[in-house]
Amino acid sequence: MVGGASRDPSPKGKRGLPEIDPALRAAAAASAGGTLVIWWPAFTLGAYGAIFFDAVLAIWAVATAVLLSGLVLRTRGVLSWGGWVALALPSIWIVLAVVAPRTHGFRYLHYFEVVLTLVGAPTLTWLLSRILLPDYAELPERHRLWAVAVTIAVGVLAFLLGKFNYLFLTCADFDISGDNTPPGCADGPPFHLL
Fold first, then answer.
1. Out of 18, 23, 126, 158, which could bridge 43 as a Cys pair, Cβ 3.0 to 4.6 Å?
2. pLDDT reading at 6 higher than 70
3. Where do transmembrane segments lie in this chain (predicted)?
4. pTM of the model
């Protein structure tokens, strides 16, 4: 300490960087979490016309982890009954997939899978943000809605990127990543940085 002045321990005092607004931090964390869930299913829906099972199972894993945590800890009042049902929907989808007749197919199960992913991802984002981010509950409703809107916007953009993948990706890009080539992909070499 020089001349009896105390040092400011806040991040604002470090290297002259401004402190990040807690509302921005909570809204950005909620948006980022939601986009991590929705971007790949939306992209594959655009590129292949299908949502891959691994994306739906990723949503199932996260939703089930939160659901089981709530049941094990016997937490009440954190979520409404609708929130608990929303967390159970991915498990309901799996049960339906197991009991659905395979010989004639259960066409509508695929539609449930699409709805579960595209509607469930923003809903799951909201639920997880409410549970996992301490600052989220203190956000004004407008900020919380913006976080969900950003998640939905990234989902729509990812769908469009999948639909028009031939504008910036080639069939070789899909091959080299281990994915099947979608219909209508562009011929050419894969993208390389060097």
1. 158
2. no
3. 48-71, 78-99, 111-133, 145-168
4. 0.72
